[in-house]
Amino acid sequence: MPKEQDLANRPDNTAFTQQRLPAWQPILSAGIVIPGFVLIGLAFIGIGVALFLTSRSIQVQEFDYTGVDTTSSCYMCSSTNVPNCVCYVNFTLTTKFQGMVYFYYALSNYFQSHRKFGASRDYYQLSGDTTYFTAPLDVCIPFQYANTTPIVPCGLSANSLFNDTFKLYQIVNGTTKLVPFDGRGIAWWSDYNIKYQNPKVTPLKDAFKGTAKPVNWPKPAYELDTTDPSNNGFVNQDFLVWMRRAALPNFWKLYRRITDPDYVGGLPAGNYSIEITYNYPVISFNGKKRVVLSNVSWMGGRNPFLGIAYLVVGSLCIVMSIVMLIVYAKFKFPDDV
Amino acid sequence: QAVLNADYTLTQFRFLQRLLLVHGRWSYRRIAFFLRYFLYKTCSFALVHIWFGFFNGFSAQSLYENWFIVLYTVFYTATPVECLAIFEQDVSAQGSLSCPELYKVGQRQELFNPWLLTATLLYAIYTSLVLFFMPLGVFHNSALDYQTMAVTINMATVFSVTIELVLLTRHWTKWNVVAVCVSLSMFFLCTLITQSRKLFEMSPVDYYFPGVAQNAFCSPVVWLTALLTTWTTVLPSFTVHALNIILTNPDKRKVHNTNDRPVELQRSGFRRGASQRRSSYAVSQGRGIGRLITSEGSLRSTVPPVDRGGTTSDTATLGMLNLRQRLESDG
After folding, report:
1. Which residues in A lie closer than 8 A to residue B275 (C-beta atoms)?
2. How far is B74 from chain A (nearest CA, A)?
3. Rg of chain B's alpha carbons, rounded to an integer?
4. Which residues are CB-contacts of B156 (< 8 A; sequence separation ≥ 6)?
């Protein structure tokens, strides 16, 4: 071959092309590895202890009110189809329930994580785009049209809005005293301000002309909270909390907070009664409904799993480092075995 | 014409030695690691959906946002493994040339065979189980929602596969470091961008996770869950890696005439596969030569050769060992 061509085809002689890049090849030894494992194990155990103790300090009271049991107080409501049936759950607090107290409702065996549940909503409608009020998206089928009128907000997610309501009473000296609830700010800031927008029409009712309310709703969207325009329509806090899809079949959803000056420090010990307006049917699919009172910490609600998991993994690391130490010792001094 | 049709063309026969012993060997190793790692990272992030199926009525609901699925293979995990595939060297070029027996690793299929692939797959299944069930335990019966769980598992997945790659890479050039750092920061950046307000307002249907990342990245529970999940998924790898390091300690000077072979890990299924995946510790072969020659890391020191007669106490073994020590100290 001619020399010029040879030289012309010669590949570059740089460090990159000739695979001569400076590199670091880590050299680890037992002296680094075993203490490393021990350190990580100790760190995890430390975190686990902190999480576990924090979780233990959170108080939770849960009351099932599905009414399956004939002796349960809500049995009458669950077995009849009377709308707005009222039932009571009474409980006693033996010690003060530290505040701020959060009031949740919890559902079981309820698959908000099902694909059809999450897909069945119209993002354009919920962003306030009125062109979709006349023609909802097809993903909302079968909750798209009611006879020929378009449904707003369409879809299964919106239609299944939870409609039980709760009131908490403290029983003091034979008289019942209402514990006021605070429904502001229970949904995400980004949901309230970004994801969901009302149509920019005042009064709001005019935007909904020619549309129908979802089939299972008692009132249309623009009447969700007639007392407060900033909580009406699609930005209603309860609606937003419901639309924020849960990950798993058993979940809690925040209903209210107790921020009243009398109770902001916590609920004093005593007798209490929760008045429940039982509307939401769950028995047909073996679902359960519960009411939960909880206080929260920096890690959210009670979560013993995280603390215990950290403790387990940390202990596992320590155990493994001990095993490795034994293996190393045996390897190093085989005659001593 | 032969030149145009051939995969490799040599102008002189002497180039063949370098092509085969240096680049051929490196290529085998790199391709084997690359393919096994790809199998691992893709299976572990996809199999999560099988386990999630049990909790969403088998409705094929994805646990991740679409953008994560798209960008995972492209931005978050591609460049580090590409750097592995381009730069990885276990022994230097001079070492490969002076110890041609190392080439037999490829001929004996020690780095890529059905058993290793099965082991990798099993390890990926284990990883996906941990990636799903640890957050499940945290999010079960809580007020946390589906999109936060998605971001948590996203974070844990990206951390896990990146750490796995960090364990796999033995030859760290500056590009490897840059690739790992850039990939991790791309994850956070792209997640924040695809879940931002502006994009959602442009197209609500395409960017349907607005505000989730901003919320989740500030939540200590999300970070703690991701950290725990990551560590649990890489724990078997770390353990096998650590055991290999401990059991190939060069400071040992005693002759092993005992019949126990401490370097062999006679452990079950995926762990052994994981150790083989790490580097060519031919532990399943049980032969002195392959194991001793191809074990690395601590052998780069200039400690005089360890006489590990074992059961193959022929001079060839010792010859190989001396060769290995020499080439390592050269390299």
Report:
1. none
2. 24
3. 23
4. B131, B134, B135, B225, B226, B229, B230, B233
Which residues from A are below 8 Å from B134, CB to CB? 309
Q: Which pLDDT does position B261 carry in this prediction?
A: 35
The CA-based angle B279-B78-B27, given to 5 degrees, is: 40
Strands of A60-64's sheet in order across: A60-64, A288-295, A101-108, A251-258
For the stretch B256-287, pLDDT in tens is 333 333 333 333 333 444 444 444 433 333 34
Reported as a single tens digit per residue, the pLDDT across B34-61 is 999 999 999 998 999 999 999 998 998 9
Write the CA distances from A174 to A86, A268, A273, A317, integer angstroms.
Answer: 20, 16, 12, 57
In chain B, beta strands by DSSP E: none
Q: Which residues of B touch A188 (CB under 8 A)?
A: 211, 215
The number of beta carbons lying within 10 Å of the beta carbon of residue A72 is 16
* Domain ranges (residues) in chain A: 82-295
Rounded Cα distance between A250 and A107, Å, is 6
Please indicate whether, in this complex, the C-beta atoms of A306 and B252 are within 8 angstroms of each other.
no
A204 and A230 Cβ atoms separated by less than 8 Å: no
The pLDDT value given to residue A159: 92
- Give the gap in angstroms from C-alpha B30 to the nearest C-alpha of chain A: 13
Ranking A16-25, A38-47, A313-322, B174-183 by mean pLDDT, the lowest is: A16-25
B328: Cα separation from own chain's centroid: 23
ipTM score assigned to the predicted complex: 0.90
Of the pLDDT bands very low, low, confident and very high (cuts 50, 70, 90), residue A242 is very high
Give pTM, 2 decimals: 0.82
Task: Tell me how far apart the terminal alpha carbons of chain B are, to the nearest angstrom.
Answer: 39
CA–CA distances in Å: residue A125 to residues A156, B19, B194, B320: 14, 64, 21, 74
**3-class DSSP state of A177:** strand
Chain A contacts in chain B segment 27-66 (CB below 8 A): 52, 55-57, 59-62
